[in-house]
Amino acid sequence: MKYMEEYKRKLVTADEAVKVVQSGDTVNYGEFIMNSALLDEALAKRKDELTNVNIITTTCPFQPKTVLADPNKEHFIFNDWHFSAASRKLHDKGLCYFMPMLYHETPDYYERGYVPIDVAFIKVTSMNKHGYFNLGTSSSMTPSICDVARIIVAEVNTSVPRCLGGTRESIHISDIDFIVEGDNRPLIELPDTPFTEVDNKIARLVLEEIEDGACLQLGIGAMPNAIGNMIAQSDLKDLGVHTEMLCDSFVDMYESGVLTGRRKQIDKRKMVYTFAMGSRKLYDFMDDNPACAMYPVNYTNDPYVISRNKKVVAINNAIEIDLYGQACAESAGTRQISGTGGQFDFIFGSYKSEGGKGFVCLSSTVVDKNGNLESRIKPTITPGGTVTSHRAINFYVITEYGKVMLKGESTWQRAEALISIAHPKFRDDLIKEAEKMKIWVKTNKIG
Q1: Residue numbers annotated as active site
Q2: Contacts of 274 (CB under 8 A, 6+ apart)
Q3: What's this model's pTM, rounded to 2 decimal places?
Q4: Whole-angstrom Cα distance, residue 224 to residue 84?
Q5: In a domain, 19, yes or no
Q6: Residue 447 pLDDT grade (very low, low, confident, very high; cuts 50, 70, 90)
């Protein structure tokens, strides 16, 4: 009863809650689909009262009203740790700024005071009888943000699933300053991404490398989902999950009986993750499900935690890779596309895992905006591009033309290996560039 009395004392409208934001404040919006559009809309109404408000988010799935209302950035500056499609479009207009990071380190950035927070906007479930609100589908940084925020404003939304931990999956009413009852708009769902034949060819090559009892991490996009779909239909046994992102294909694998987690060394029988995005099917599966365990990202993505499970299989994609083995997964030249995310964390962690394997998977070509076919294996990373995975970190690289392993390979061996899985149309040109770069020898051959 006492918690309900406290709840009523702290309950305000969204317009009242955002009055706590002052000029010069830093406001953290939340993570992924747990960003509060309701509180953003209320703050946007105060545009003319505020200047120099610094907004930070992680993969905001919508274009904030605060940003759209202020195209000259006189009132709000918008920053994102990892770009969504919405942030990418705003970045193209000069209205969003990227925040470089190693994902597993980010809670520490807040705890050390590198990113001071005045106001935290969070979206939560309804309060339980013990006075706790669940953080829903994302807790990678939110607990650390709440630890350091001067003021916490929570939007209660009944569409949010109650996602079990793990640890730090909930926040107590005593730690919240203001409560807003949301309009209960449904959580944003990711659109279906159809698999191509190239995706399926790559998936089959990855599937050959997965053993019974392996522990899986899948990145975002069609290709990892194609791999998950193929695993669900395979005869593999007792796979486990220790991943950054929980997506729909994990539900398919679990329901097919492929995922049991019984051979994991830590968090046995638990599907460990730090955030989730997908369809309603995924959100319903996660709700109050003890098979799932959500942890902050400094646990899920810590390479040394990852490596405690055996046979970790990390599957990620890239925008391009060069002949040295450097993978760019976040920008096209200087145009920010995505972010570092967990690729580095999981490739490094998978190598440290006994029997582990880390894969960078990409189609060999892409069609550019002018309709021209372009190789995604390049002599060097496009000028201005970001190296997401260092050449000494990368492990396996797979295209639809095959797979190569780069560990222990010299520069000329890497060039030969990577050209062998490039599209045949571009191999001769890549060889010429490799010769100019002094990473080709007379005995090199492309079979």
Answers
A1: 244
A2: 138, 139, 140, 244, 245, 294, 295, 296, 297, 299, 300, 301
A3: 0.96
A4: 17
A5: yes
A6: low
